[in-house]
Amino acid sequence: MIDVQFADVARAAERIWPFVHRTPLERSASIDRELGVHVWFKCEQFQKTGSFKFRGACNAVLALPEAAVRGGVVTHSSGNHAQALARAAQLRGLRAYVVMPTDSVPAKKEATLAYGAHVVPCAPSLADRERVAAEVQKETGAYFVHPYDEPLVIAGQGTVGLELLDQLPDVDAVIAPVGGGGLLSGLCLAIHQRQPKVRLFAAEPAGADDAARSLRSGERQQVTTPVTIADGLRAQLSERTFAILRQHVEDVIVVEESEIVGAMRLLWERTKWVVEPSAAVALAALRQEGVRRVWGGRTVAVVLTGGNADLDALPWLVRRDPV
Amino acid sequence: MIDVQFADVARAAERIWPFVHRTPLERSASIDRELGVHVWFKCEQFQKTGSFKFRGACNAVLALPEAAVRGGVVTHSSGNHAQALARAAQLRGLRAYVVMPTDSVPAKKEATLAYGAHVVPCAPSLADRERVAAEVQKETGAYFVHPYDEPLVIAGQGTVGLELLDQLPDVDAVIAPVGGGGLLSGLCLAIHQRQPKVRLFAAEPAGADDAARSLRSGERQQVTTPVTIADGLRAQLSERTFAILRQHVEDVIVVEESEIVGAMRLLWERTKWVVEPSAAVALAALRQEGVRRVWGGRTVAVVLTGGNADLDALPWLVRRDPV
Fold it and tell me: Which of A1, A50, A14, A4 is nearest to A185 (CA)?
């Protein structure tokens, strides 16, 4: 079942390092004081294309054999994977097709176009995204690069964990947001192989809590209609990512929408980093009274996953309709 | 007339280094490409209290003799100098009184209070600010620390220039925003003493262009009603800062409001840094067709002065009434 290992992460690191940023690990004295925890932020908002997704996309695009990508690459994504794949394909001179729902944020569509991708519109439903992507695949012969249920993508995301351990060898715990589980799976493989005692936690919006329910019940659960402003976390675990998470993740901390917005705003105010809602979810988890009490005085790394916030619709200014 | 010298900047650096951040000098590949210039950003949004103002306030508070500050320190400010002085006073265990207009941004008032200052309200006019500050001074014996017309403050701000030359010895030109001229005066003293060939430019909003008109006419000009979203740049040059700028600054580049907002948004989108409107003014200047053509292929440092943006009133979302 688990067809991606630490060795794949190590290979990904060798493959992608000339093309990705080694992102900084930073702290905020005032957030430390407020939480009573030594918090370190792994700043993937400063990664190329503005999110960690570039690591996985880059690894997949560079690793795939010539024969597989002769027709280019294709994916469906409304967000960060779209830009990431577009830019990665550009590196190798491949055509990239990105199926994007018509309600995507205009800035994300523009960024994807700017990286030279062909954007193919679809209706805003998973079914239509998959249908249109399959059509593109059939017509062009492009290789489908899944945003998370793909060993090469998981291995690429795992390089976040390798860097983190290099930068912070004494870390006690790592908290990362979970959506489809690609990043977290990669972190599990990277971190537990090197330092099995580091405790790994997921953070998830209450309105898209399939990972929390899946890990607690031991069976993969679906959330049919995820409702959260953390648009990067609306995806569901796959069998592959679920299998990895079960072996490594201690708990999934569930956070409310107001906690996500609060953590996002706190980061903007105190650290002067633009982070998107999904990226604030792990800090939101650590700010919960019960969680921060457990980690008081210890060293916790929080993964900030991306900075592609919709600057025209900040959650504390605009009331969004539930999706 | 000019009672502040390079030696004062050097002393300030020795005095304040344990208390201030050495801020990073960063670049953005995509902004470089767009401008065709090698642009480096001096990131004072990451300075303590969120702006360069902490350097000057810190230098003043630490340098003043015990007898002068027995009654504490006082200033009037609606913005970054308020927070900076409050926090600097806290370092030395001094009382700080900050006279703030009643229309100040609530977040800035709260931050000033959080640093332990006494906030004294006044009407939103320079006359009333000065009147109330004088009253506080009389009642408490507190020492008045001017936001820019004060040698110790200018010397403190000059430490930005010393760091910049250490980080980028080959810089061809430096562009910084100008309001009262405290930062720019300090930069002039620091940079031209060490590297007289570096070309120094000011950037200023068209709605508060006293520096541009003063330097062009050779006589200090006033703008009685500055109108700009760059709230940190509404102040006027003093005789002291004017005298320094005349000797060192080659030109003042004037920018429109739309250029400020455009540069601010570009920074948020591309670099994921929260910068305030005033901080975007120097990049707005460099983006002007005529300016960037002059500096094509050369190395230019742009000072980003602070990150204390009003997150409830982003200029591309909210139409503000002219002040």
Answer: A4
In this prediction, residue A275 has a pLDDT band, given cuts at 50, 70 and 90, of very high
Q: Which helix (H) or strand (E) holds A175?
A: strand A173-177
DSSP codes of every residue in B280-317: GHHHHHHHSHHHHHHTTTSEEEEEE-B----TTS-TTT
- DSSP designation for A273: B
| CB–CB contacts below 8 A, A to B | 40
Measured distance CA(B52)–CA(B88) in Å, rounded: 12
In this complex, is the C-beta atom of B265 within 8 Å of any C-beta atom belonging to chain A? yes
Q: Does A21 touch chain B (CB under 8 A)?
A: no
Q: What is the mean pLDDT of residues A256-272?
A: 97
B172 lies in some domain: yes
Judged against a pLDDT cut of 50, whether residue B57 lies above it is answered with: yes
Q: Which chain A residues are within 8 Å of B272, Cβ to Cβ?
A: 45-46, 50, 273-275, 307
The count of other CB atoms within 10 Å of the CB of residue A312 is 14
- Average pLDDT of chain A, as a whole number: 95
Distance CA B277, CA B268 (A): 11
Cα distance from A310 to chain B (closest Cα, Å)? 9
Q: Are A188 and A285 found together in one domain? A: yes
Contacts of B45 in chain A (CB under 8 A): 272
Q: What is the pLDDT of residues A81-133, one digit of tens each?
A: 999 999 999 999 999 999 998 988 888 899 999 999 999 999 988 889 999 99
In a domain, B315, yes or no: no
- Domain membership of residue A319 (yes or no) is no
Residue A265: list chain B partners with CB under 8 A: 311
Task: Compute the nearest-CA separation of A276 from chain B (Å).
Answer: 10
Is the pLDDT assigned to residue A301 strictly greater than 60?
Answer: yes
Q: Which domain holds residue B131?
A: 54-149
Counted domains in chain B: 2
Instruction: Report yes or no on A99 lying in a domain.
Output: yes
Question: For residue A108, what pLDDT is reported?
Answer: 86
Domain containing A212 — which CATH number?
3.40.50.1100
pLDDT band, residue B323 (cuts 50/70/90) = very low
Nearest beta carbon to residue B272 from set A269, A274, A316: A274
- Average pLDDT on B210-222 reads 96
Q: Is the domain of B64 the same as that of B44?
A: no
A50 touches B at CB < 8 Å: yes
Q: What is the pLDDT of residues A33-64, one digit of tens each?
A: 999 999 999 999 999 999 999 999 999 999 99
